[in-house]
Amino acid sequence: MKKINILRILFIIVLAGITILALIKPQHVETNLLRAFFSNGVKDELLVNLSGKYSANINVLLESVNPDALEKSKENFLNKIDKNCFEIQSADFARTLEFYKKYKNNLLSYKDYKTMNSGDFETITQQAVDNLYNPFGFSLLPEEEDPFLLFTDYITSLGSGGIMNSVNGKFYEIINLKVEKELALSPSVMNKEVKKLIDLQKSQSNELVNIYLTGAPIHSYYASARSMTETNIICIISALFVSGLILWYFRSLKILLPILASLALGMGMGYLTTSLLFSSIHVLTFVFSTTLIGICVDYSFHYLMECNIKKVFKSLTVSMLSTVCALLILMLSGIELLKQMAVFTSAGLITVYFIVILFYQFLPPQTSRHKFNLKFTRIKKAILIFIALIIATGLFRIKFNDDIRTMYKPSKQMLAAEKLYKEVTSTNANTSFVIVQGKNLQDILEREEIVGEKLHENNISYYALSKFLPSIKQQKANMTLRSKLYDEELAVFNEILTLQDLWNIKHFPNTYFSEEAFTKIPQLNEFLLDKNHSMIVLYDAENVQFLNDIENIHYINLPVEISNGIRQVRITCLKILLPIFILLYVLLGFIFSFKNAGKIILPSVIASLFAICFIGIFQPVNLFHILAIFLITGFGLDYAIFRFNGSKNSNDAVLISCITTVFSFLMLAFTSFKLISSLGFVLALGLLSSYILSILLISKD
């Protein structure tokens, strides 16, 4: 008795120590889905940062047939936005224009630069003269400042610059918002602020003006709000079902208290241990680690059926060791999410195990009203044939889908808003990115200009920082060409320009602009990923092999790169499965003999294969289906170990544990969030088949 008291004291000390250490360390929950799978190497970090540039952006699209009502609604909307939560990114066209006017002699459009650089100054002059006599021609500067319209050509080459759009007889205004960084780090707080923005949208929309919201934070709010409602309903139904089952079987609800206590401590210790070992915990880690609920119920029921630790000690210990070993192999995967899953679930599982063997002895003996005695002897062959047919059919039909976008299906309302936004902004083209690396800002700009030259040669449209902020080297070249143009062609305008005008045009100051542009035009910061990397946005770039010859750049097609990354994670998971089964076989072989180890592990192997093949017959298999195999293996081993080594009472414990776990996961299968629903269904199917196979394939001698 003294030994067990010492163990209890040590266990409490360890729990307290981990808790104190974890609470001292700041906690952060990572919500960026990509960071769950992309956490190794420079390119992974660039991909995540690039994605993050858009994940905090909200687009407000105002629509009306009345331009005046549209402008008034835009002003009202801007006045009511919480500036502490959302930064207005929309360009101030007038302010931008005034800034560029200061450096008008530094700027040339690509077309004008190429024409003048080839020595063809006459074409520039002819275009200016034609515009002068064109009744529809316009200039952003007076003739005495820009007779060749070089500044006007440059500004118009940048795009509309915030001018009101007109599509299909309706007028549109766009407000671009960015969620403040601190707010973006707290999903729950961000959702509250996004809800306020959605409420503002609804209150400001009327019969004259329609307002639409698009962007990742809006999708995130609707998805999480819908999932939260569904999850709460499911939790209530599951809790009522479990409580009803316990009340029916034990004639008392008192045992719920120790089960809930062990669950809370297990989840808490999993969270705290993961907090100590990782700089942040990914939100998906919590999703997968909810399987601890089933383990807690499983271990608790096994003890409560016997109320004798000696009878269940070996089965509980072997079950815990086998599951922990299967999980800890994930630490070798090199994938952040899998490592966190392994630590979180293992720590929680070990905690629940020690709570059961050290403290459940204080619970009074439990009596049951009912006994189960499920047998499938008569239909054994039929079940095995059915499973074999499903596996055989599935292996031939199985296909994989690694597109992470299939995990979320937006509402029709959101799809319509996104489609309208792309139509108004003419961004229906497929976008990809070139990441440019440089020693400093000027190095980045010069490298961008090299890339830009190649893109122009291949007729690929693009947006880049260097379009809005030429390098100093390019500004000097622009000034040199302007001087040559003025020397050769300025005399054409002698009749409309005074001598003072001519002198002022030819003797412009040699001043350059660089970093100050970011303070005058804050939107330029959106092109920078960090101080050494910028991004160039490409449109409909189908063949970019020519970029391979340029140093210090990375071409990234986000959908392709993400799908390839998910595919690599899936392949890694599949490769890990065989070592896991071998390790478990060896471990169980030393404990039960290698012949019996095969019997114990076989139900989990067949159940995992059956579940994946069943899914594969009807739909493509995704990464989360594969991840479910690890969980099916852990639970399935519990069922098989207790079936092989447990007492008669353990049969009831396994059945109740299976019923409660399968029911809970089956409820998740009905959620609208496909990631959760796909995980829930395959787990429910795999665990049910694992339980049935443990009865069919393991007989107690």
Structure summarized in a few sentences:
With 701 residues, the chain is α+β, with helices and mostly antiparallel strands. The protein has helices at residues 2-24, 41-55, 67-80, 93-102, 110-117, 121-132, 150-157, 181-184, 187-204, 216-250, 256-277, 283-289, 292-306, 309-328, 336-359, 380-397, 412-425, 441-457, 465-468, 472-489, 499-506, 516-520, 558-592, 594-618, 623-645, 648-668, 674-697; strands at 29-30, 57-64, 86-88, 165-167, 170-179, 209-214, 281-282, 431-437, 461-463, 528-530, 533-539, 553-556. The strands form three sheets. Strands 2, 3, 4, 5 and 6 form a five-stranded antiparallel beta sheet that branches. Strands 8, 9, 10, 11 and 12 form a five-stranded antiparallel beta sheet that branches. Strands 1-7 form a two-stranded parallel ribbon.
Structure in words:
The chain is of the alpha+beta class. The chain has a domain at 2-19 and 250-369 and 377-406 and 561-697. The chain has helices at residues 2-24, 41-55, 67-80, 93-102, 110-117, 121-132, 150-157, 181-184, 187-204, 216-250, 256-277, 283-289, 292-306, 309-328, 336-359, 380-397, 412-425, 441-457, 465-468, 472-489, 499-506, 516-520, 558-592, 594-618, 623-645, 648-668, 674-697; strands spanning 29-30, 57-64, 86-88, 165-167, 170-179, 209-214, 281-282, 431-437, 461-463, 528-530, 533-539, 553-556. Strands 2, 3, 4, 5 and 6 form a five-stranded antiparallel sheet that branches. Strands 8, 9, 10, 11 and 12 form a five-stranded antiparallel sheet that branches. The radius of gyration is 33 Å and the shape is elongated. The mean pLDDT is 81.
